[in-house]
Design a protein that fits this description.
Blueprint: H1 2-31, E1 47-53, H2 60-68, E2 77-84, H3 90-96, E3 103-107, H4 112-122, E4 127-131, E5 136-137, H5 141-146, E6 154-165, H6 171-190, E7 200-204, H7 217-227, E8 231-242, H8 247-267, H9 274-277, H10 279-290, H11 295-304, H12 313-334, H13 344-367, H14 382-385, E9 389-390
Parallel strand pairs: 1-2, 1-4, 2-3, 6-8
Antiparallel strand pairs: 4-7, 5-8, 6-7, 6-9
Helix pairs in contact: 1-6, 1-10, 1-11, 6-13, 8-13, 12-13
Length: about 400
């Protein structure tokens, strides 16, 4: 009896986190809609574009050209590159850039979050825009980011991110981002998105709060907006694009991001108080805790189901289904560098299992007190990216 209860509890948790929460988010758009009270831009606010960089010599020049070409009044746009102890010549490339003024902060290696804090302290713009060195913004991206801020209830804007890809490599990760993008649109239509992604987002300078170590910087900064009772909305027209990591790099990134992400929720656990933050508290818990920890019910089901084979056809089908799914994931992993392994029937199960295995490993690291105070970008090697086009 206990085994049956554990089995169905795991199924219920898995079903809610995977399907129930997205369906609930969509259903909420049917009865609750909060349109923006934004107005056409009559004047442009001053912007500080902040790029935290560690050993970005391969991409920083392209990033600076991209920033210089943005369709925004140049006298109102301050570009700041904060180098976190780079030792590959990143600083020299920034210093040599002549297309337009760029402020370089040549800092010692201290971790991304401290680097961001120092960059913000040096920034003079009314709006802070954060972006990664390898994320290229569409020319109108800044205008699209600041447009929703004409609504005085909006304190931050999450931008949209798309991968450079040939359509095969990283299919599972792209599918995840496509789904997450849809959830953001639903959330934004009814209130606030759970958090922004670091490739492109903006907040009012007055709402910035110093970022502690060992948290995810973009999540902490963007959720600080909600903590101060303002909306964080999503504008899909504020577009950036960039490379995708290979499978091994993506696995390492998922461990780091999930470890820091769970710690971020803990650091901002006051947002889980529904009496103060209402539905957002349930949204945060469902989106950033339960969805990240569905590896636990998956593990429970994988262990428990074979022992329940004799209890009926349902349990036998569950055992066979899991074997087929995880077998496809394993095959996708073994063939990940071959065209067959990039087909959806193999690449999607592989990505699903990879993400959840990384999340379990991240949870263990978090419980053991492991910290990720410094970072290094994970992306494909240039030889893999050659010839790829933006989606």
């Amino acid at each position: 009896m206990i085994g049956v209860i554990i089995f169905w509890a795991a199924v219920a948790l898995l079903a809610y986190a995977t399907f129930g929460f997205p369906v609930m988010t969509w259903l909420r758009t049917r009865w609750r809609h909060r349109p923006l009270q934004s107005e056409p831009l009559s004047s442009y606010p001053s912007i500080s574009l902040i790029i935290a960089a560690y050993n970005e010599a391969d991409v920083i020049l392209q990033k600076l050209h991209n920033a210089a070409a943005l369709d925004y009044p140049p006298e109102l746009l301050e570009i700041i590159v904060a180098s976190d102890g780079s030792d590959d010549g990143t600083q020299e490339i920034v210093r040599s850039f002549q297309e337009r003024p760029v402020r370089l902060l040549d800092l010692p290696r201290q971790g991304k979050n401290t680097t961001i804090n120092e960059a913000v302290a040096a920034a003079g713009g009314d709006i802070l825009v954060f972006t990664d060195a390898d994320s290229m913004l569409r020319p109108d991206a800044l205008c699209e980011l600041v447009a929703p801020l004409t609504d005085q209830t909006v304190g931050g804007v999450a931008g949209n991110y798309r991968y450079h890809t040939d359509g095969a490599e990283g299919l599972g990760e792209k599918s995840y981002w496509d789904f997450d993008r849809q959830i953001k649109e639903w959330q934004s239509a009814t209130g606030s998105v759970t958090s922004a992604t670091g490739q492109i987002y903006a907040i009012r300078r007055s709402l910035f709060q110093s970022v502690p170590a060992s948290v995810t910087d973009d999540a902490f900064i963007s959720r600080s907006v909600i903590g101060q009772q303002q909306r964080l909305v999503f504008n899909p027209a504020a577009l950036a694009s960039g490379p995708i990591a290979d499978a091994d790099g993506e696995y390492r990134r998922k461990i780091r991001v999930t470890t820091r992400g769970l710690n971020t929720v803990w650091q901002q656990r006051f947002l889980l108080n529904p009496f103060r933050y209402g539905y957002y508290s349930l949204q945060l818990f469902s989106h950033k805790v339960l969805r990240r920890l569905i590896g636990l019910p998956l593990l429970i089901l994988a262990i428990a189901t074979p022992f329940m084979w004799s209890k009926g056809i349902v349990y036998r089908l569950a055992a066979v289904g899991q074997l087929a799914f995880h077998g496809a994931a394993l095959t996708g992993y073994l063939l990940r560098h071959r065209p067959l392994g990039r087909k959806k029937p193999l690449s999607l199960p592989f990505h699903f299992d990879m993400v959840n295995l990384a999340a379990l490993q991240a949870a263990v690291k978090l419980l053991r007190g492991h910290r990720f105070d410094v970072w290094q970008a994970e992306r494909m090697q240039p030889s893999i990216r050659e010839g790829q086009e933006a989606r």
